[in-house]
Amino acid sequence: MLLIPCPYCGERTESEFRYGGEAHFRRPENHLEATDEAWADYLFMRKNPKGWHRERWMHIAGCKRWFYVVRHTVTHRISSVYKVGDPLPDLPS
Amino acid sequence: MTDECAPLDNVLRPGAPSGPSGVALSDRRFVGQINLRGRGEAVTAVGAALGYALPVEANTTVGSGVSRACWLGPDEWLLICEDDQRAELKKRLDDALAGHAYAATDVTDSRAVLRIAGACARPVLAKGCPLDLSARSFGVGHVAQSLVGRAQAMILPIEGGGYDLFVARSFAGYLWTWLLDAGAEYGIRVQT
């Protein structure tokens, strides 16, 4: 069970949250001219790293806000959380 | 508001205590509830209308008795009042917030309010709630949205020990029976 520090409510247990997958990928610009490859990349391809991962979480049983978490996919350590619109914190080395 | 449509009518059964009766469960019927969204100057304007400042610190509540404001999120509050006061409260908010970007919505009928009180209220709630319920971190003046059993609920500690659980009315029957089961070992008394 993860202890996730919601940037609004403070530390809460994982069961209060919903996972939103990888963060910060962008919809193709100029969608009428975007290639099938660009659409496939946007829709289906994710980094799935073994290591630090920027991801979206929503505090569904609490404040119901989306925010970002930097989590290590092997150790589950959370290095930082940040709000939508905040500058991206560096990944731990 | 008629009594016929109370959300717990189908499961609420008055009963004598079956044991030491360390827990009392009751249905706070029809608590006036207004959901308020707003930011910046709107928050200040509401303070003037209510007579007290909205709580801006996470997981806190301000007010007295039934009338209070509960922090739900960075720009969201639940204002609680007597059922017959809500129209007047909503009007007061609308008047104070005219010209601001805000939303004040009467959500009274969306949630049932279950009160669990008594010396053993905390251990009963702790069976299904992941919050740290110890008095030093969650007492009167605090409020939190979390889980109780499988239901999302707003949990409001009350004077004298115990909690008011604000739960979606479709979950009220589930939560009531869950609390009866969780409280059985302490002896649970149903009050009407």
Can you characterise this structure?
The complex is a heterodimer of chains A (93) and B (192). With 93 residues, chain A is mainly beta. Chain A has a single domain, classed as Folate-binding fold. In chain A, 10% of the residues lie in helices and 35% in strands. Chain A has 1 helix and 6 strands; from the N terminus they run βββαβββ. In chain A, the strands form 2 sheets. Chain A has a 4-stranded antiparallel β-sheet, with no helix packed on it. Chain A has a two-stranded antiparallel ribbon with strand order 1-2. The two termini of chain A are 24 Å apart. The model of chain A has no long low-confidence stretch (mean pLDDT 96). Chain B is built from 4 helices and 11 strands, in the order ββαβββαββαβββαβ. Chain B is 22% helix and 33% strand. Chain B has 2 domains: 108 residues, Probable tRNA modification gtpase trme, domain 1 (Gyrase A, domain 2); 79 residues, Alpha-Beta Plaits (2-Layer Sandwich), CATH 3.30.70.1520. Chain B is of the alpha+beta class and 192 residues long. The chains are: A mainly beta (93), B alpha+beta (192).
Helix content percent band of chain B: 10-25%
N-to-C order of helices and strands of chain A = EEEHEEE
Q: Please tell me what the overall shape of chain B is.
A: globular
Shape of chain A: globular
- What is the terminal separation of chain A in angstroms? 24 Å
The name of the CATH architecture of chain A is 2-Layer Sandwich
- Total strands of chain B: the figure is 11
